[in-house]
């Protein structure tokens, strides 16, 4: 019989996409995959390659909310009992958690049954759920060489594997970065994160309209924009004589990345790793309200490698963004250096690296 791996992942793309990439790598090695999460995952997991989905009770709470804390504790306890019962039936060889509170019941059930367990942290700052569980799992995988706020006691079991990405993104590692030709077309890609970014939707068209006319005439902009901002963005670009494609979501992100000379976007872990693998110079705008400044630290990793500039929200304006764009878009040599810097932190084989760690951990078997 093929071995079974339970993947415990939250209902956000940042947790689910790396889990899917790992699952596909494990399936290619002969594993069976079971997805364990809360009810939110159903809407996002239509294409997840699991042969079974286990719905687990889970809940989070806000600091200073004792009632919420009690309710969350009860929900997680129910989720653990549900997971234990399911695990007794399917007998998984390993349980892998990808962070977020929906992953907690599945991992705790695996830990309580002495099953091999692996935790993957996508960000440069360890998330709060992962922080609480890290000391109790067999192995901890992380995306970046920097892992802030990790418990000191786990240092011996942390392995840097990268952030698993979709195969079409992985293939971009083999494509060279071609800086813009003098007086040639300048391709600018603006992403908005999984939920869209109001700040970028509204600020970027205004900043691009401030660029010198000669630069605007060379631009081809592709921008993910919130639906409510699309009409305004189109009007600004038309008035500025800028060729622009506006949409709330781009499905062919790999193709667009492969053509971009410069990318502007948030610095979620998935985005940073995709930009790095593609070798795309970037201006990264960390989400200011992100817990523990995880997006800021993700951006810093890429900036320290020379692959990005970081634009903090509290220092960002139409003028500062226009100035940053003008300096980079008119300096192809610097863009080429930034491409090299971005790829310094790239791990296109992250899914295979993580699959190796999962198999090695599963080989340890249950502890009596």
Cα-atom radius of gyration:
22 Å
Identify the strand order in the major beta sheet.
Answer: 3-2-1-4-5-6-7
The main pleated sheet reads as:
7 strands, parallel
The overall pLDDT, averaged over residues, is 92
CATH fold descriptor of the largest domain: Rossmann fold
Tally of domains = 2
Q: What's the number of extended β-strand segments?
A: 13
Task: Please tally the helical runs, counting DSSP H or I stretches of 4 or more residues.
Answer: 14
Approximate strand percentage:
15-25%
Structural class: alpha/beta
The CATH architecture of the largest domain is 3-Layer(aba) Sandwich
N-to-C SSE series?
EHEEHEHEHEEHEHHEHEHEHEHEHHH
Shape: elongated
Instruction: Write the CATH homologous superfamily of the largest domain.
Output: Glycogen Phosphorylase B
What share of residues is helical? 40-55%
Spans of at least 5 consecutive residues with low confidence: none
Gap between N and C termini, in Å?
A: 22 Å
Q: How is this structure best described in words?
A:
The chain folds into two domains: 4-164 and 348-362, Rossmann fold, CATH 3.40.50; 170-344, Rossmann fold, CATH 3.40.50.2000. The strands form two sheets. It has a seven-stranded parallel sheet with strand order 3-2-1-4-5-6-7, sandwiched between helices. A six-stranded parallel sheet has the order 10-9-8-11-12-13, sandwiched between helices. It is elongated, with a radius of gyration of 22 Å. The longest helix has 25 residues, at 66-90. It is an alpha/beta fold and 368 residues long. It contains 14 helices and 13 strands. The model has no long low-confidence stretch (mean pLDDT 92).
């Amino acid at each position: 019989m093929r071995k079974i791996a339970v993947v415990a992942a939250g209902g956000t793309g940042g947790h689910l996409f790396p889990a899917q990439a790992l699952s596909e790598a494990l399936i290619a090695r002969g594993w069976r995959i079971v997805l364990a999460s809360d009810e939110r995952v159903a809407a996002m997991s239509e294409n997840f390659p699991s042969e079974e989905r286990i719905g687990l009770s889970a809940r989070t709470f806000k600091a200073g909310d004792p009632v919420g804390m009690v309710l969350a504790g009860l929900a997680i306890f129910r989720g653990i009992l549900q997971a234990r019962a399911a695990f007794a039936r399917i007998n998984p060889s390993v349980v892998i958690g990808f962070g977020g509170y929906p992953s907690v019941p599945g991992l705790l059930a695996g830990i309580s049954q002495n099953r091999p367990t692996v935790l993957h942290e996508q960000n440069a700052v360890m998330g709060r759920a992962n922080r609480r569980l890290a000391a109790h799992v067999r192995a901890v995988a992380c995306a970046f060489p920097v892992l802030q706020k990790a418990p000191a006691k786990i240092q011996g079991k942390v392995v840097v594997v990268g952030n698993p990405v979709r195969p079409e993104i992985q293939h971009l590692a083999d494509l060279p970065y071609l800086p813009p030709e003098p007086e040639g077309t300048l391709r600018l890609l603006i992403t908005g994160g999984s939920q869209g970014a109001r700040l970028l939707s509204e600020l970027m068209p205004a900043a691009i309209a401030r660029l010198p006319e000669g630069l605007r005439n060379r631009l081809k902009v592709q921008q993910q924009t919130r639906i409510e901002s699309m009409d305004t963005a189109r009007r600004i670009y038309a008035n500025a004589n800028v060729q622009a494609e506006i949409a709330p979501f781009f499905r062919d992100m790999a193709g667009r990345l492969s053509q971009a000379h410069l990318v502007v976007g948030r610095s979620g872990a998935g985005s940073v790793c995709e930009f790095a693998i593609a070798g795309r110079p970037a201006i990264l705008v960390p989400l200011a309200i992100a817990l523990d400044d995880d997006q800021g630290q993700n951006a810093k990793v890429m900036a320290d490698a020379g692959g990005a500039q970081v634009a903090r929200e509290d220092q960002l304006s139409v003028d500062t963004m226009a100035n940053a764009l003008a300096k980079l878009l008119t300096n192809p040599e610097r863009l080429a250096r930034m491409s090299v810097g971005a790829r310094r932190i790239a791990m296109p084989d992250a899914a295979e690296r993580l699959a190796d760690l999962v198999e090695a951990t599963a080989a340890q078997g249950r502890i009596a």
